[in-house]
Amino acid sequence: MSTGMYCGISGVKAYQTGIDVIGNNIANVNTYGFKSSRVTYRDVFYQTLASSSKSDATNSIGGANPSQVGYGATAATIDVLNTRAGMATTGNSKDCYINGEGYFVVKDGNGYLYTRVGSFGFDGDGNLVDGNKKLVCGTNGATKPTGAISTCEPIKVEDYSTYKNISIGSDGAITGEKDGEIKTLGYIALANIPNPSGLTQQGGSYYKAENNVANDSYPIKYYTPGVGETGSLVTSALEASNTDLATELTQMIINERGFQANTKIITVSDEMMETLVNMKR
């Protein structure tokens, strides 16, 4: 098989990955809290046909540049674009938009998952849950943390049925009215993540902190909204998708043309090989 055909195959595979990513971005154009991704392409292995050489003035011989043949392209990275999107008002008083940095924290077994989607409500037992019924974490009680939260735990309102007009404030405070008195019941926490680009997407608008997200010098810390470089909350709103349709459609055309050009390379290489085979007949 000719080198040109190998190059065409690698190009087709690379641009197929690009189309897959673009398709996912467009499919989630109306998904709350969605962060679009991009693909970067790089060239791959080169075969050196002739190495470079230095000039030799004593023998009146000039230098020579290397002669190399490449073997195509590859999709090198798929990066999540963590730019903030606009605010979409919902009219639901328990929906929360993070006006700045930070992620909501929900319980996942013995660990945490992180999300930018603050679609909250309470279950029958008084647990604060998100739209997927995962437990939302923070602190319980009326005492407001002044710094980092040492223990981020699921929020639960004891005797939930006895409270009315439960609301969420811009500082994450959950308040409710009981016996004519407004009481603070707990505080929602936001995670300050050193390297958000290192988060692993889990589906359902969740992210998981695995490798390359934090270290001992820069750990993940938890604060009430507006503290520790985290943004404050805006209620009755959710974060919109950051997919830019104009950009995605333009990139789709570019990737499609790249895909078509590489399939043409495969076709031409095949025709050349067929010509060589037919020479013997």
Mean of all residue-level pLDDT scores: 91
The biggest beta sheet is recorded as: 5 strands, antiparallel
Elements, N to C (H/E): HEEEEEEEEEEEEEEEEEEEEEH
Distance between the termini: 20 Å
Number of domains: 2
Strand content: 25-35%
Strand order, biggest sheet? 12-11-15-14-13
Number of contiguous helices: 2
Shape, principal axes of CA atoms: elongated
Work out the helicity level: 10-25%
Cα gyration radius (Å): 28 Å
- Structural class by secondary-structure content: alpha+beta
Low-confidence stretches: none
Report the count of strand segments. Answer: 21
Produce the secondary structure layout.
Blueprint: H1 3-27, E1 37-43, E2 46-50, E3 67-70, E4 73-80, E5 87-89, E6 95-99, E7 103-108, E8 111-115, E9 118-122, E10 128-130, E11 137-140, E12 153-154, E13 164-168, E14 173-178, E15 181-188, E16 190-192, E17 200-203, E18 206-208, E19 221-223, E20 232-235, E21 237-239, H2 245-278
Antiparallel strand pairs: 1-4, 2-3, 5-21, 6-9, 6-20, 7-8, 7-16, 9-10, 11-12, 11-15, 13-14, 14-15, 16-19, 17-18
Commentary on this structure:
The chain is of the alpha+beta class and 281 residues long. The chain has two domains: 3-82 and 243-278, no CATH class; 87-238, no CATH class. It contains two helices and 21 strands. Strands 12-11-15-14-13 form a five-stranded antiparallel beta sheet, with no helix packed on it. Strands 10-9-6-20 form a four-stranded antiparallel beta sheet, with no helix packed on it. A hairpin with a 2-residue loop joins strand 14 and strand 15. The radius of gyration is 28 Å and the shape is elongated. The mean pLDDT is 91. Residues 5-35 form the Flagellar basal body rod protein N-terminal domain. Residues 98-175 form the Flagellar hook protein FlgE/F/G-like D1 domain. One of its GO terms (cellular component) is bacterial-type flagellum basal body. InterPro entries: Flag_bb_rod_N, Flagellar_basal_body_rod_CS, Flagellar_FlgE/F/G, Flg_bb/hook_C_dom, FlgE/F/G-like, LlgE_F_G-like_D1.
